[in-house]
Design brief:
- Chain B: It is found in: Endosome.
- The complex is a heterodimer of chains A (991) and B (297).
- Chain A is mainly alpha-helical.
- The chains are: A mainly alpha (991), B mainly beta (297).
- Chains A and B meet through helix 11, helix 12 and helix 14 of A and strand 17 and strand 18 of B.
């Protein structure tokens, strides 16, 4: 590490340049200076004991002696010249010059060789250019991959063709824009539930299953089906499936039917896939391709498959037979090319035999589901299925159904909603990539049927939003005509609203649509129904109208949900409304000027939801607020929101939660600016401090903000404070000084003291800066040895060392107090370090001492490396006064004595490797900072060099490089003595 | 240790016709050498007739006439006494399926009172202390295609209370009208029975509509005969109160082995019928019967 010129570990970052302003002048900082005057320093023990040291190590003893005699041991530095000398030479690069990043020459021949590999045809790519970008050359077709694809190799073509074919087929098939069934099943399961008892199998047994038991039973069946396949019990698998599909003819607990359908068709799907896979496996060569001809299928597999079809054809029950046949529809491929296209129409008309309209419509949905997957190109057959449905539509209102509902005590509107998942799905399949004309035709057909609310709703759910949106007025008309007793109207309006959230209706209709729709929605009596609609329609309102209309809607929602505290059951919808409003109105001035916005927030009375909503608001604010703000409306409202978040914190709040709340609040604080009105800004911070006192990160943010304010003031005053601004920056310092102690994390406190001290210094508040530094020094002894980092206990040494280095760097420029002794802060700090209980007399302490040596070397320079503008540092105060230098030397001696003592201990404890490393580090420090023309110092360096090598722990490479560096330094002006030094440093060869 | 004997036919579906050659392999696998005293193959085709319990009294006198009727029989020795090496030994064989003196190979049929079955049996006789090994497998015979075309014979039907026979109290019957059509009662065994059915109206809702496939087996000779009709399968084509005025499909696949082309010989007959059964919610059962002529083309 010592090799390169200028391993100058000393100069730290110059003090930060934040911004700043004010409080009442005069009041001096409440800091006391206890125990910091130099006289109190017990100065380092051990210094006088040198002679009595055991002479086990002659080297060390020697070293110790040398030091007492010294006058000045740091060499003079010309920082500017050094910087110049060490900087890399800058050479301008001419265009076209060689540059390693600019040009990579790729030889053409190589590229081509790779390209031809594996192909018999000759490629005639001879494109060559002198300047070849490897990337672009890959793209122009000479890369191995594209060459391979371009060759006329018959094998390649044979390989590629099937995949081309498949691609073409997929055009007519189903793309990723088709929402698959699996997306729906969760919703259905959640929506159609029951508390009634269910039964599996014959009515006699198991009549009393709860819904969950029932689901478990079916899951068991699913499991045994899997087991059956795994053990190759095909017949058993088939039997299980037949048993399961039988359950679908049972409508005894009709509210549960859609969920039952989902559960059982899951099993059927598994069965269908497994059996297809089973036959595929029997024909290994088919595995890769989807388009095989039945002739390629081997006889045994065909025979087994045929057997299955015969077995299934003889299933007695219509519904079981239908479902099993549909499940294995794909297997028809094994027997005949036209198998699927012939079977599909037959299965379609088979459904006509299902008398119960609900059972039938789900059977149709299942046929659509499998059909879309297996034969999406047979759209016409699939559509026939829907027309069949329309012609049996009257069944829904038939007498049989009425009787059934009477027995089960189910209301017609509830019953009708059971159809929705199936019809939605069917219409979605039909509408997928369908031409406009077809959709129009479908709509006409739906219109013709009497009470068409059910269909209307599904049309709105399934068809393209644009299609619906352009006809919004028609739909509103149709909805109005629907019977009151039938399908629930609020669901219809909800569906329409969802379309309008996605697509825009014609410009001219927009207001009328809102008026017409809201006229109906506002009359809904059930708060749940109402809020479900409102939740959807708010999006439309926000998108196309101004805050006036949105405000009206919000007011209406409040009116509907306040009676009987109805909002308590509608938090999720209300939350969704807020989210949508926020999403559409990023301008918080507009948002908060809606008079109903805050009252709307008041409906969130459950704390957890309230906090969620607040977070949501803050999230949008932080992300979208572009400019700093001082708008009192925004500030008031957001203060309120943030306070709500802050006040939700209690002893049980999780750390993560606190952190995220703090992030939001801090974000808000950063967005507040009163421009040049610094005093107002500071009083805002004062208010914020009292409001958010429980969240530490927010307090930290506030301290930073106040420091920033101080620096801002300095900037405005161009460094020259007036009476008034000086008082203001002192007030800022006071703010920080009182706030910091309330923080719990000790390192945060330390760093903030240091930071605030730097800011105070930059603002020429010397006594305040002193107070901060003293506070930091007095706090140091409290630093625990172990701290908790992310739930694990870690030693704090690293942090402490880092902080101290940073601190010392700052102390370089802190001028001494006229009434205190020389370098009294440094001494004070050293005393604390000395007394601090370090872990087993560890190296960090000594490393810190080494750093202090660097500091002392810097302090003794005539001109310091850096300064604070308008603050005289010690270089100017003392002007290299010999007394001052003597003090520094005395201190250095003590420090070196300490370090050598430590080296000695290491020798005793057999920690020789550490000893070697430390000796080397001290050597390096002396090399860089010491004046080696001084013989004694020179001798010390040589002794350290030898000590480092003494026990064979020195890294030879490092030693060699260090030596080379010394030799090189020799050529620098005024460093002639290095040549001699180099001669006196032997390299120990390790054998 | 264990010697396994297996028979494997060349055709996976095991279906053969008269005049074709039945071929396959005998497979013997063993870890040791297998000493044996000859391996033989026997091919047989037999008609078994059985008398239904209710007919037994009448038929005691004609006991002889229900002896199995042999259709084909032959026997070959595939290996002379000796030793087979250890491992897997495959011995191929062939049987020509030909019959003499105007006999016909009837199609395989598994019924209740009539069974037409073809088997192939392999016997390995073994020296003392080792059991003889036997393996039997059934193969299926399809009769030769019928000469001449099967002309479709569609039947339209209409069922109403007036059209019914066997009614106890006509007055208690609800009003209904069911129309329908079978595309053909001359059926090809490999093709499904198709048609359609419409419930034009019904006072009592329909509970179920079923197709009942019935076999009619007749055993006997000049002295007398027994005729029994039994159900082969029952296929539901409508479940619940179906939409009135909307045609529902009639569709039934003829099950393999349990059906064969309609067969009429001097000793026995095998015929098929289908019943269209409509069950009403009040459990009224309305049946319409259609005799079928099944053939193979």
């Amino acid at each position: 590490a010592a090799a390169h010129g200028g391993t100058d570990s000393l100069p730290p970052p110059p003090p930060p340049e934040p911004a700043s302003p004010v409080q009442t002048p005069g009041s001096p900082l409440p800091c006391d200076t206890e125990g910091l005057c130099p006289d109190d320093f017990p100065l380092f023990p051990g210094m006088s004991n040198n002679e009595s040291a055991p002479d086990t190590d002659f080297l060390l003893t020697l070293c110790v002696y040398i030091f007492i005699l010294f006058q000045r041991h740091s060499r003079c530095r010309n920082y500017k010249a050094e910087l110049e000398a060490c900087r890399f030479e800058v050479i301008p690069v001419e265009f076209g010059d060689f540059h390693p990043l600019k040009l990579i020459t790729v030889t053409d021949s190589k590229t081509k060789k790779v390209g031809r590999k594996g192909s018999t045809s000759s490629t005639s790519s001879s494109s060559s250019s002198s300047m070849l970008d490897p990337l672009s050359s890959l793209l122009d077709g000479s890369d191995p991959l594209s060459l391979f694809a371009a060759t006329a190799d018959p094998l390649t073509i044979a390989c590629c063709q099937p995949s081309f074919k498949r691609e073409r087929e997929e055009e007519t098939g189903v793309g990723s824009d088709f929402e698959p069934w699996c997306g729906k099943r969760g919703d259905i399961l959640a929506r159609y539930t029951t508390t009634e008892k269910l039964s599996i199998g014959s009515q006699k047994e198991l009549l009393n299953l709860t819904q969950q038991d029932y689901i478990n039973r079916i899951e068991e069946q699913n499991q045994s089906l899997k087991d059956a396949w795994a053990t190759d019990q095909k017949v058993k698998a088939l039997k299980i499936v037949i048993q399961c599909s039988k359950l679908l003819s049972d409508t005894s607990v009709i509210q549960f039917y859609p969920s039952k359908f989902v559960l059982i068709t899951d099993i059927l799907d598994t069965f269908g896939k497994d059996s297809y896979q089973h036959f595929i496996c029997r024909n290994c060569f088919l595995v890769l391709q989807d388009n095989f001809s039945p002739d390629e299928v081997n006889e045994t597999a065909k025979e087994t498959c045929l057997n299955w079809f015969f077995k299934i054809a003889s299933i007695r029950e219509l519904i079981s037979r239908f479902y099993v046949e549909v499940a294995i529809l794909k297997c028809n491929k094994f027997l005949s090319k036209v198998g699927i296209s012939e079977t599909l129409p037959r299965l379609t008309s088979m459904i006509r035999g299902i008398g119960d309209p609900l059972v039938a419509v789900y059977a149709r949905a299942y046929l659509f589901r499998v059909g879309m997957e297996v034969a999406p190109h047979l759209k016409d057959s699939l559509n026939k299925n829907f027309f069949d449905f329309l012609s049996t539509f009257k069944q829904i209102h038939g007498e049989t159904v009425q009787n059934q509902l009477a027995v089960q005590r189910v209301e017609i509107p509830i019953y009708l909603t059971l159809y929705s998942p199936a019809i939605d799905w069917i219409l979605q399949c039909i509408a997928y990539k369908a031409p406009e004309a077809l959709l129009t035709e479908m709509m006409e057909r739906c219109k013709k049927l009497g009470n068409n609310a059910l269909l209307l709703n599904s049309v709105m759910s399934a068809f393209r939003a644009e299609f619906i949106a352009t006809r919004s007025m028609d739909f509103i008309g149709m909805i109005k005509e629907c019977e009151e007793s039938g399908f629930p109207k609020h669901i219809l309006f909800r569906s329409l609203g969802m379309n309008l959230a996605l697509a825009d209706p014609p410009e001219n209709d927009r207001l009328q649509i809102l008026n017409e729709a809201w006229k109906v929605i506002t009359k809904l009596k059930n708060p749940q129904d109402y809020v479900n609609c409102a939740e959807v329609w708010i999006e439309y309102t926000c998108r196309h109208f101004t805050k006036r209309q949105v405000n009206t809607v919000l007011a209406d929602v409040i009116k509907h949900l306040t009676p009987d505290r109805a909002f308590e059951d509608a938090y999720s919808q209300l939350q969704s409304i807020i989210t949508k409003v926020l999403y559409n109105f990023h301008d918080f001035a507009v948002l908060f000027s809606m008079e109903k916005f805050l009252p709307f927030l008041d409906m969130f009375q459950k704390e957890s939801v309230r906090v969620e909503v607040c977070k949501c608001i803050m999230d949008v604010f932080i992300r979208h607020q572009q400019e700093l703000t001082r708008d009192p409306v925004i500030l008031n409202a957001l203060m309120h929101v943030c306070k709500t978040m802050h006040d939700s914190v209690n002893a049980l709040t999780l750390e993560d939660e606190k952190r995220s709340l703090a992030v939001f609040i801090s974000g808000f604080i950063r967005m507040v600016s009163f421009g040049r009105d610094f005093e107002q800004q500071l009083s805002f911070y004062v208010e914020a401090r009292s409001t958010f006192c429980n969240l530490e990160p927010v307090l930290v943010q506030l301290i930073h903000s106040v420091n920033q304010l101080a620096m801002e003031t300095r900037k405005v005053m161009k460094g020259k404070h007036s009476r008034k601004t000086a008082a203001f920056v002192r007030a800022c310092a006071a703010y920080c000084f009182i706030t910091i102690p309330s923080l719990a994390n000790i390192f945060t406190r330390l760093n903030l003291y240091l930071h605030s001290g730097q800011v105070a210094l930059a603002n020429q508040c010397l006594s305040q800066a002193d107070a901060f530094f003293k506070a930091a020094i007095s706090l140091l002894p409290e630093v625990p040895r172990m701290i908790n980092i992310d739930g694990k206990m870690r030693t704090s040494e690293g942090f402490l060392f880092e902080f101290l280095s940073n601190f010392f760097s700052t102390l370089l420029i802190v001028p001494d107090h006229p009434e205190q002794g020389v370098l009294y802060l440094v001494r004070g700090l050293l005393n604390v370090i000395q007394d601090y209980t370090w872990e087993d007399a560890s190296d960090p302490k000594v490393r810190t001492y080494t750093n202090v040596l660097h500091l002392l070397a810097a302090v003794s320079q005539e001109n310091y490396l850096y300064h604070v503008d308008k603050v005289d540092s010690n270089d100017n105060l003392y002007g290299s006064d010999p007394k001052f230098l003597a003090e520094i030397n005395k201190l250095s001696d003590t420090l070196i004595g300490q370090i050598l003592d430590h080296l000695k201990t290491l020798g005793k404890d057999e920690n020789l490797r550490r000893q070697s490393a430390l000796a080397m580090s001290l050597f390096n420090s002396i090399l860089i900072h010491g004046d080696l023309r001084n013989n004694k110092l020179n001798q010390l360096a040589i002794n350290l060099w030898n000590l480092a090598q003494k026990h064979g722990f020195a890294d030879t490479k490092t030693m060699v490089r260090t030596l080379e560096h010394i030799k090189r330094q020799n050529k620098q002006p005024g460093m002639g003595h290095f040549a001699e030094l180099a001669l006196r440093l032997p390299l120990q060869s390790r054998t | 240790m264990v010697t396994a004997l297996d028979l494997r036919l060349k055709r996976a579906n095991k279906v053969y016709r008269e005049g074709e050659t039945l071929s396959g392999v005998v497979i013997i696998s063993s870890k040791e050498t297998v000493p044996h005293q000859g391996i033989t193959l026997t091919m047989e085709g037999v008609v078994n007739l059985q008398l239904s319990a209710k007919s037994v009294g009448v038929f005691e006198a004609f006991y002889n006439s229900v002896k199995p009727i042999s259709l084909i029989s032959s026997n070959i020795e595939v290996a002379k006494a000796g030793k087979l090496p250890n491992g897997r030994t495959e011995i191929p064989f062939e049987f020509p399926l030909t019959v003499k003196n105007n006999k016909v190979l009837y199609e395989t049929y598994h019924g209740v009172f009539v069974n037409i079955q073809y088997t192939l049996r392999c016997d390995m006789r073994r020296p003392l202390l080792a059991k003889d090994l036997t393996k039997t497998c059934e193969f299926i015979v399809h009769s030769l295609p019928q000469k001449g075309k099967v002309s479709p014979s569609p039947v339209d039907f209409s069922i109403s209370p007036e059209s019914l026979q066997n009614v106890r109290e006509r007055t208690s019957l609800p009003r209904f009208l069911i129309r329908g059509r079978l595309d053909s009662t001359n059926c090809v065994i490999t093709q499904p029975l198709t048609g359609e059915l419409v419930v034009e109206h019904s006072d009592v809702p329909v509970k179920s509509v079923e197709l009942q496939l019935v076999r009619v087996e007749t055993c006997g000779c000049a002295e007398g005969y027994a005729r029994d009709a039994t159900e082969i399968q029952n296929i539901q084509i409508a479940d619940g109160n179906i939409c009135q005025g909307l045609a529902i499909p009639i569709y039934m696949v003829f099950p393999r082995l349990f059906t064969c082309p309609t067969l009429e010989t001097t000793n026995f007959k095998v015929e098929f019928e289908v019943n269209v059964v409509v069950v009403l919610q009040d459990d009224h059962l309305i049946t319409e019967n259609f005799p079928l002529k099944v053939s193979r083309v």
